[in-house]
Design goal:
With 372 residues, the chain is mainly α. Helices cover 66% and strands 0% of the residues. The chain has helices spanning 13-41, 63-73, 77-81, 88-122, 131-152, 163-189, 202-227, 258-261, 263-287, 295-319, 324-348, 354-357, 365-370. It is flat, with a radius of gyration of 23 Å.
């Protein structure tokens, strides 16, 4: 499991085990988001046309089983409208990509649920304080359902999943990441006090505003992915020769639907909204610069750096017409930026100092659970 021994070396082994488990869950979520992007970019997500949580663990065995699966795929819009040239070997290639994706999700679910049962049964996590952990486990299961709900939308009339369902699936992954990381940070640094004066600081309020803008920007990334809007224009900063293309709000009616349903408008919003994230990050960095040695200032510096890198990656993705490796790097950087934002909010919330938590008076396991 992921470990940060230098941060909480003086905590007991039970405490470290649960914290490492939560951090491992965070890593698993990041891996699933990144691999989910690979599945989408390789058009592999619609290759398995049924949702079999148990029997689906085993791939087709033998030529007859493969022909059966291939026949099911041949009934889908994707095969009939996009991949009619596919032979069985081509189908196997995309099948295994989606199969590995689902297998990783199953393994991740087991790595959440099984350790949680053990920790509760052993009393390492008090039963009356275990609700946040069960919420994470339950949301993992719900995320699996959302994945199938998304896939099923591409098996009906068109060879693509609903961009709305894809975005919801992505945002749920971020919410799971937020919960898991926040609980891990509570255990590493102590839970922020509800009465702390730090929450009244301008940087804290600004950081929540930045988080809101960032989540909207990532949601727009999901819409871009679902609509394949990254291919709408391969020039930057101009689109079709304009800085602001005409008729952005005239493709569909009513006008506001263009913001969520029209590829060109969604692409335009996503490419420029990124600068709102960067502007907010710069404000937070400026507000924390009075103590340059402080962890919050260093984290705000990383926020600025990752926001800048993300913009450069986004421009590169446009210029080079969405190459696979650049698009995946762009998506993964967005998740790292989100992680940085969660960490920064937690530290700005006024959590106890690292020195305080490593003293003999550090809150007990019972107190940590009570604060979640």
């Amino acid at each position: 499991m992921v470990s940060l021994p230098g941060v909480y070396a003086m905590t007991n082994s039970s405490d470290r085990t649960i914290t490492n488990w939560l951090l491992t869950v965070c890593v698993l979520i990041v891996v699933m988001v990144a691999f989910g992007g690979y599945v989408r970019l390789t058009r592999s997500g619609l290759s398995i046309v049924e949702w079999n949580p148990v029997s689906g663990v085993v791939p087709p065995l033998g030529e007859e089983a493969w022909q059966t699966e291939f026949a099911k795929y041949q009934q889908t819009p994707e095969y009939q409208k996009v991949n009619q040239h596919f032979a069985l070997a081509d189908y196997k290639r995309i099948f295994y990509v989606e199969y590995i994706h689902r297998l990783i999700a199953r393994i991740a679910g087991l790595l959440v649920v099984i350790p949680l049962f053990v920790y509760v049964l052993r009393g390492q996590i008090l039963w009356r304080n275990s609700l946040p952990y069960w919420l994470i486990a339950g949301l993992f299961g719900f995320q699996g359902f959302l994945g199938w709900y998304m896939v099923s939308s591409g098996l009906e009339n068109r060879p693509a999943v609903s961009h709305f369902r894809l975005t919801i699936h992505l945002l749920m992954a971020l919410f799971l990441l937020y919960l898991s990381l926040w609980m891990a940070l509570n255990r590493i640094y102590g839970a922020p006090s509800h009465s702390t004066n730090s929450r009244k600081m301008p940087a804290y309020g600004w950081m929540w505003l930045v988080m809101g803008v960032l989540v909207v920007q990532i949601a727009y990334g999901g819409l871009v992915a679902g609509l394949k809007a990254g291919h709408a224009s391969n020039t930057w900063p101009l689109m079709f020769g304009y800085l602001i293309p005409p008729d952005l709000l005239s493709f569909v009616q009513p006008w506001w639907k263009n913001f969520i349903e029209t590829a060109t408008t969604v692409h335009f919003m996503h490419r420029w909204f990124a600068f709102a994230v960067l502007a907010g990050a710069l404000v937070v960095w400026a507000q924390t610069r009075t103590r340059p040695e402080n962890a919050t200032h260093r984290a705000s510096g990383w926020l600025v750096a990752l926001s800048s890198l993300q913009i450069l990656l986004g421009i590169s993705v446009v210029w080079f017409s969405v190459p696979l490796w650049l698009a995946l790097l762009h998506q993964t950087t967005a998740v790292l930026l989100f992680i940085n934002a969660v960490y920064l909010i937690h530290r700005l919330a006024g959590a106890p100092s690292l020195a305080a938590q490593t003293t003999p008076n550090r809150p007990t396991e019972r107190a940590v659970h009570a604060s979640l």
